[in-house]
Structures are given as C-alpha cells and as structure tokens.
Amino acid sequence: MSTTMKIEVRLFAAARELAGVSALEVELQSPATVRQLRHHLAEKAPALAPMVPHMAIAVGSDYVEDDALIRPGDQVACIPPVSGG
Fold first, then answer.
1. How far apart are CA 64 and CA 73, in angstroms?
2. Residue 62 Cα distances to 1, 3, 21, angstroms
3. Closest CA to 34 of 61, 7, 60, 66
4. What per-residue confidence (pLDDT) applies to 27?
5. From CA 43, how far away is CA 23, in angstroms rounded?
6. What is the pLDDT of residues 33-77, one digit of tens each?
7. What's the CA gap between 74 and 59, in Å, rounded?
8. 84 falls in which pLDDT band (50, 70, 90)?
9. pLDDT for the residue 82
10. How far lies 5's CA from each of 13, 14, 27, 41, 83, in Å?
C-alpha cells in the first residue's frame, strides 16, 4: 500500500526565476520516481513545463535518471540546462 509524501524541491537559476520561488512542495505517492516528479512539477508550476524535461534532477548529492526512486526525506534539486558558449 502506498502513502503520500511531501517533497521539497529546490529550484536553481532559470527554474527559480520562472517559478518565482526557490522551492516547491510537491505531493507524491511513496515511493515515487523522478519521472513522476517531473510530471507533478509541470502541473504545479506551468511556467516550468517547457523546461522540466530538460532539467537535471539531483536526489541527495547524486544526479539521477528518470527511473530513480524518491523516498520520504530525500533532498531533491532541479538544475536547468545551461546555455552559452
């Protein structure tokens, strides 16, 4: 049986600017995947939706793929793609 969990997602750089906040609280089923987190982020902050598929996601101190699990208490950060040259 799954339960819900609230995850604070830290936003950086352009993601923070678009969302207008430095962190978002997202409610997910426990455990959840990064893919599910991306879906909920796009719903919670529609201004982020175009960027969400391209953001790097870190859980703890590790960058993770979309099938990685997020558990209660995990620290999650979203880092937008870097442009420039």
1. 16
2. 28, 25, 23
3. 66
4. 94
5. 15
6. 999 999 999 999 999 999 999 999 999 999 999 999 999 999 999
7. 6
8. low
9. 79
10. 26, 26, 6, 14, 33
The 3-state DSSP class for residue 39 equals helix
Residue 85 scores a pLDDT above 90: no
Distances (CA, A) of 20 to 2, 16, 46, 57: 31, 6, 11, 19
pTM above 0.85, yes or no: yes
Cα–Cα distance measured from residue 32 to residue 73, given in angstroms and rounded to the nearest whole number: 12
DSSP class of residue 70?
A: E
Domains of the chain: 3-79 (3.10.20.30)
Residue found by looking up tokens 């995850």 in the block: 7
